[in-house]
Design brief:
Mannose-Binding Protein A, Chain A, binds calcium ion
Length: 234
C-alpha cells in the first residue's frame, strides 16, 4: 500500500512537473506572440504614419501642380490674347501704310499748299467735276469752297502761275448755286463771278477761269479740268 502511494505520488509529481513545463512553454510562447504582435503593431503604425506623410506630400504636390497648371493656363491665354492684339495691330498698320501709300501716290499727282489750319491740294491731272469730287473724297477732302475774299485772294495768288482752269466745289442745284459738302449742300452766299458769269445753258459747275484771272465761271461739268481740294488739318 505504501509503495503504491509512493508510486502514485511519484507519478503525480512527474505529471505536475510536465504540466508546469507545458504551462511555462505556453507562457513563453504567449509572451513571444505578444511581443511579436507588439512589434507588428508598432511596425504597422510606423508604416501607416509614413503612408500618411507620403499622402500629405502627394496632396501638396498635386495642389502645387494644379496651381502651376492654372498659372500656365492663364499665362497661355494672356499670351494668346497679346498675340491676337499684335496680329490686329500689324493688320491695322498694314492698312495704314497702304492708305498712306495711296495718299502719297495721289499727292504725287499734285501739290499741297497750306493756309492756317487748311491744306489745299492742287491737282496736276484733269478730271470731270464729279470725278474731281470723288478724288478729293479719297483723300478725306472736298472740292474747295471759297466763302470769302481772304481765301479767294490766297487761291488766286497761289494759282496765278498756272495757265489752267480749276474746278471748285460749287454746282447748280435746283436753279441755285450751292457748295457741295461731305453730307449735303450749302448755299453760295459770297461769290466772285467773272463779268457775264454765270451764263446760261448747260454749264452747271463752277471753275476758276484762267482767261478771267481765275475769277468764277460756270462750265460744262464733264469737261476735264484741274481742280483744288481742301481738308482741315487733323
Ligand atoms: Ca460760263
Amino acid at each position: 500500500m505504501y509503495e503504491n502511494n509512493v508510486q502514485l505520488h511519484s507519478v503525480c509529481m512527474s505529471a505536475n512537473k510536465d504540466m508546469k513545463t507545458a504551462l511555462e512553454e505556453i507562457r513563453q510562447k504567449t509572451e513571444e506572440q505578444q511581443s511579436k504582435y507588439q512589434n507588428d503593431t508598432e511596425r504597422y503604425e510606423r508604416i501607416n504614419e509614413t503612408v500618411e506623410k507620403h499622402d500629405s506630400k502627394l496632396l501638396t504636390i498635386e495642389r502645387r501642380n494644379e496651381n502651376q497648371q492654372r498659372v500656365i493656363q492663364t499665362t497661355l491665354q494672356r499670351h494668346e490674347s497679346d498675340l491676337q492684339d499684335l496680329r490686329q495691330l500689324i493688320q491695322d498698320l498694314k492698312s495704314k501704310v497702304l492708305n498712306m501709300t495711296d495718299e502719297l501716290n495721289i499727292l504725287l499727282k499734285g501739290s499741297v499748299i497750306v493756309k492756317g489750319t487748311t491744306n489745299y491740294f492742287v491737282s496736276e491731272e484733269k478730271l470731270s467735276w464729279s470725278d474731281a469730287w470723288s478724288f478729293c473724297r479719297k483723300i478725306g477732302a472736298i472740292l474747295v469752297h471759297i466763302k470769302n475774299q481772304i481765301i479767294n485772294g490766297f487761291l488766286l495768288k497761289s494759282l496765278s502761275k498756272y495757265a489752267d482752269d480749276f474746278w471748285i466745289g460749287g454746282e447748280l442745284v435746283s436753279g441755285r448755286y450751292m457748295w457741295k459738302t461731305s453730307t449735303g449742300y450749302e448755299p453760295v452766299s459770297w461769290s466772285n463771278w467773272a463779268p457775264g458769269e454765270p451764263n446760261s445753258g448747260g454749264q452747271k459747275c463752277i471753275q476758276l477761269d484762267e482767261y478771267q484771272y481765275h475769277k468764277w465761271d460756270n462750265d460744262y461739268c464733264n469737261t476735264p479740268q484741274r481742280f483744288v481740294c481742301s481738308r482741315e488739318q487733323s
